[in-house]
Design a protein that fits this description.
With 91 residues, the chain is mostly helical. The chain has one domain. The relative contact order is 0.05.
């Protein structure tokens, strides 16, 4: 589809297509970018309460990721870290 055809689609269909494609292709960059712009989009659409909720959720996920090396959670994630680091020896 060209840009003009895409522009004619409802937002829900654009969302579903984009997210489905990103998930299927492991495009975490797009999904992360989407998460970053949702709070601003909520504010622009007048949903200021939802903006605060979105920021809290993203903040909580980031906090979890930063602390995920401690305690039992860190031990449970050891295989993930070993796998990642073995594929990136310069880390």
């Amino acid at each position: 589809m060209d840009v003009e055809e895409l522009e004619s689609l409802p937002a829900k269909e654009l969302h579903d297509r984009a997210v489905r494609y990103a998930v299927r292709h492991g495009d975490l960059g797009f999904l992360w970018d989407l998460l970053k712009v949702i709070p601003a989009a909520e504010a622009a659409s007048g949903n200021t309460d939802e903006t605060a909720n979105d920021l809290s959720r993203v903040s909580a996920l980031l906090s979890d990721a930063m602390a995920a090396g401690e305690g039992e959670l860190g031990d449970a994630l050891r295989p993930v870290y070993v796998d990642y680091l073995s594929r990136h020896p310069d880390a």
